[in-house]
């Protein structure tokens, strides 16, 4: 039987960012340096495949520091942690390594600097997400107010409208965030903030690539986990940019083939925490059913790399 033709658009950039590469490397180096078990507080990045792979190598994933023994190393996930977490680890004299993405640490420092200058902070982010919890947790209770939507801006009860600053989560929708920033600036003209927002280069580039790809594709698959904020945003961006069907899949077995019935083109991208091997798996599944022609849609080149912390670069026993 002949296979139907399918044009497969591959978004570039897609998949791992520099912060994810670094975080995974930190866990691998920790296992080499200190042996198993090495504890990791929260999924190092939001991907089951990555987590399962590290677990097989001896990493133990826990949600709280309370679930770690005093005498084994613990790594904090790429999303960042409230100040109280390293403080507690230090009090318990634990060996800890912080795998927080440097671009998140930059936001933490920004928030602290505003606080030192006497400003109250508005954070644009998703409630309950570990990055939001970590950034808000850099300052005492009440010093950071959270807004998730434009509507939330009208409900803000601030201490002094003249002494305000905003920070953002790094993985938000660029377009939604612009609207929220505009609403903040309209209500609080004196509000200070970054040039645009704190959305990172990887989030921005992946959303841009999807915007270029989505209008051409009959359907779009985003490889990523259901708890991966940046991956979920790519699904939304795809739908909003004109793709009739946009689905998040963890791997090939998640593909809803019935929903793809009759398509002649498909766009593929991957969130910042999704390994390329899972993209390959999805492509192979499509090749098994269609006569596939691949076309890359590249809207940016990335060459960002982050160094691992000094302790991981030192020889064992140092
Ligand atoms: C850390 C940060 O692990 P992810 O899926 O995380 P999100 O925040 O998108 O749920 O992706 C990598 C990553 C992104 N941002 C890690 Cl702060
Ligand atoms: Fe960092 Fe952005 Fe990746 S904040 S972990 S570079 S998605």
Automatic annotation (TrEMBL):
Its EC number is 1.17.7.4. Pathway: Isoprenoid biosynthesis; isopentenyl diphosphate biosynthesis via DXP pathway; isopentenyl diphosphate from 1-deoxy-D-xylulose 5-phosphate: step 6/6; Isoprenoid biosynthesis; dimethylallyl diphosphate biosynthesis; dimethylallyl diphosphate from (2E)-4-hydroxy-3-methylbutenyl diphosphate: step 1/1. The active site is at 131 (proton donor). It catalyses: isopentenyl diphosphate + 2 oxidized [2Fe-2S]-[ferredoxin] + H2O = (2E)-4-hydroxy-3-methylbut-2-enyl diphosphate + 2 reduced [2Fe-2S]-[ferredoxin] + 2 H(+); dimethylallyl diphosphate + 2 oxidized [2Fe-2S]-[ferredoxin] + H2O = (2E)-4-hydroxy-3-methylbut-2-enyl diphosphate + 2 reduced [2Fe-2S]-[ferredoxin] + 2 H(+). Its cofactor is [4Fe-4S] cluster. Binds 1 [4Fe-4S] cluster per subunit. Keywords: 4Fe-4S, Iron, Iron-sulfur, Isoprene biosynthesis, Metal-binding, Oxidoreductase. InterPro entries: LytB/IspH (IPR003451). Dimethylallyl diphosphate binds at residues 46, 79, 129, 228-230, 273. (2E)-4-hydroxy-3-methylbut-2-enyl diphosphate binds at residues 46, 79, 129, 170, 228-230, 273. Isopentenyl diphosphate binds at residues 46, 79, 129, 228-230, 273. Gene3D superfamilies: 3.40.50.11270, 4-hydroxy-3-methylbut-2-enyl diphosphate reductase, catalytic domain (3.40.1010.20). It holds the Pfam family LYTB. CDD domains: lytB_ispH. It comes from the Bacteria. [4Fe-4S] cluster binds at residues 17, 101, 200. GO terms for biological process: dimethylallyl diphosphate biosynthetic process; isopentenyl diphosphate biosynthetic process, methylerythritol 4-phosphate pathway; terpenoid biosynthetic process. GO terms for molecular function: 4 iron, 4 sulfur cluster binding; 4-hydroxy-3-methylbut-2-enyl diphosphate reductase activity; metal ion binding. Catalyzes the conversion of 1-hydroxy-2-methyl-2-(E)-butenyl 4-diphosphate (HMBPP) into a mixture of isopentenyl diphosphate (IPP) and dimethylallyl diphosphate (DMAPP). Acts in the terminal step of the DOXP/MEP pathway for isoprenoid precursor biosynthesis. Belongs to the IspH family. This is 4-hydroxy-3-methylbut-2-enyl diphosphate reductase. It comes from Roseovarius litoreus.
